[in-house]
Amino acid sequence: MWHITRRGFTAGAAGALAGLLPAGDAVAYAPGGELGVIRRPKRQFRGMWLATVANRDWPSRPSLTAEQQRTELIGFLDTAVRRRLNAVIFQVRPTADALWPSPYEPWSQYLTGEQGKHPGWDPLGFAVREAHRRGLELHAWFNPYRIANHTDPSRLVPTHPARVHPEWVVPYGGKLYYNPGLPEVRRFVQDAILDAVRRYAIDAVHWDDYFYPYPVAGQVFDDDAAWAEHGAGFPDRGAWRRDNTDRLVSETTARIKKIKPKVRFGISPFAVWRNRATDPAGSDTRAGVQTYDDLYADTRKWVRTCLIDYIVPQVYWNIGFEVADYAKLVPWWSEVVEGTGVDLYIGEALYKAGDPAQPAPWQDPAELSRHLTFDKDWPQVRGNVFFSATEVAVDRNGAMSRVVADHYPTPVRPPR
Q1: DSSP 154-190
Q2: What integer is the mean pLDDT of 251-263?
Q3: What are 176's strand-pairing partners?
Q4: 14 pLDDT band (50/70/90 cuts)?
Q5: Which of 33, 144, 313, 395 has the most CB atoms in a 10 Å sphere around its CB?
Q6: Residue 162 contacts residue 223 (beta carbons within 8 Å)
Q7: Is the CB of residue 385 less than 8 Å from the CB of residue 49?
Q8: 380: left (phi over 0), alpha (psi -120 to 50) or beta
Q9: What is the mean pLDDT of the chain?
């Protein structure tokens, strides 16, 4: 933006003024004596999640050729650029598998339809190169503990670590999970993730909201043996489980920074840490799930103790939603990050926009734009991330186009 500050300055005065400006701004001097400041847009995180689990976004089906997969992937990266986004959060370990040639885990079945089958190329390496060519950050998204969306270990390849170490595995809620209470599991999960950190120029390691699994009515997560062996000294099993998750986070942070100090570490949790009725420090919400109590993830602690570089709470509700109001959660998270140095980005439920199954606010194309307008009153909010890439591209009811028109007039760089 060109802003005339005063007439009659000399070129020398322009140089003096330049030294007083914030980083990123510039001084322009016109021969007629006009001196102006070009204000550069502030850094802002503008991301989208690109999900591969169950072929949610990419590849559209597992029967595509390598060339077709590359073409689809490039299409999503180009969509991000067209929407003036600056980061893609690419899911590369959806179910204890890999979208790169990992020495720890098999190739993902979502590439070829067959777990362990080489797809003929390296999707993560390709994604990093092509994202950077377009000026996009590439955040590699890993799910720590989910093994499979079924409970039959025989459907895994024989060399899968979950079959080699059946004692690591807990079936729950129709899925298979690694047991977070075992130190050897936590070490293995870190090793598998850090292989990608070492080998690729990723900008960040990213985790979503799955730690201990979401509760399923009438079912118990069977970690009795691990609790008996490792739970001494804890007042109850909940405290022990939270400590297990804390250890996974803190150990991963330390190992990332030792390998590549500039690689960031971010987590995108369910947005309700605890309801205020449960804990006075909690948010003014009445959510049925609380990450602290149900997922054994003390997300607030991770921010307050600076264990992570950024947090993206999934505030997947509309403004005014009675149980969990966007307009109450964003201020709560803003206060949590205040003074920590941890960046706050808000996760946005673009997938709800225009979905006829969603309530009336989500039928309004302006709902998401109002979210970003609201965020401007909270300077701690440094950006937004949209779930997910398919909706960013399809833009079912024009909500994404509205966000871009109202809030993304020019490209900007992400915070660092």
Answers
A1: GGS-TT-HHHH-GGGEEEETTEEEE-TT-HHHHHHHH
A2: 98
A3: 148, 171
A4: very low
A5: 313
A6: no
A7: yes
A8: alpha
A9: 93
Reported pTM? 0.91
Q: Which residue has the tokens 């991770």?
A: 302
Closest CA to 411 of 137, 41, 89, 134: 41
Q: Would the pLDDT of 47 be above 80?
A: yes
Question: Would the CA dihedral through 278, 281, 287, 290 be positive or negative?
Answer: negative
- How far is it, in rounded angstroms, from Cα 119 to Cα 335? 46
Distance separating alpha carbons of residues 343 and 323, to the nearest angstrom: 26
Specify the pairing of strand 146-148 against strand 381-386.
Answer: unpaired
The sign of the dihedral angle between the CA atoms of 374, 379, 380, 384 is positive
Rounded to whole angstroms, the Cα distance separating 125 from 202 reads: 9
Task: Label residues 202-237 b or e (16+ Cβ within 10 Å = b).
Answer: bbbbbbbbbbbbebeeeeebebeebbeebbeeeeeb
pLDDT for 168: 98
Beta bridge partners of 265: 205
- CA dist 260 → 132, 199, 203, 408 (Å): 18, 11, 10, 31
- Distances in Å between the Cα of 236 and the Cα atoms of 230, 231, 241, 243 are 12, 8, 9, 11
pLDDT digits (tens, 9 = 90+) for 88-98: 999 999 999 99
What tens digit of pLDDT does each residue of 229-252 get?
Answer: 999 999 999 999 999 999 999 999
SS3 354: coil
Is residue 373 packed enough to be buried (19+ CB in 10 Å), middle (13-18) or exposed (0-12)?
Answer: middle
- Look at residue 313 and give its three-state secondary structure: coil
Pick from 335, 283, 348, 337: nearest CA to 311: 337
Report the alpha-carbon distance of residue 53 to residue 383 in Å, rounded: 25
* Nearest CA-CA partner of 301 in 346, 258, 250: 250
Coil, helix or strand at residue 400: helix
